[in-house]
Write a structure and sequence with these properties.
mainly alpha, 2 helices, flat, single chain
Length: 55
């Protein structure tokens, strides 16, 4: 049983580190208004694919 808890804790820690890194990267992007604008424009372009009716 303790091994299972250790495995879950390790996975949770790794997941938290991934989220922290992603949040840090988004924060860095937001520091440059031009880069952030381009990022948002690209997201809008990809959002169109959500309404294409394909699953």
């Amino acid at each position: 049983m303790p091994k299972l808890i250790e495995d879950k804790a390790a996975k949770l820690y790794a997941y938290e580190q991934i989220l922290k890194k992603a949040n840090d990267q988004y924060a860095a992007l937001q520091q440059d208004p031009q880069v952030w604008k381009e990022m948002l424009e690209e997201i809008e372009e990809w959002d169109v694919t959500l309404s294409d009716g394909l699953d």
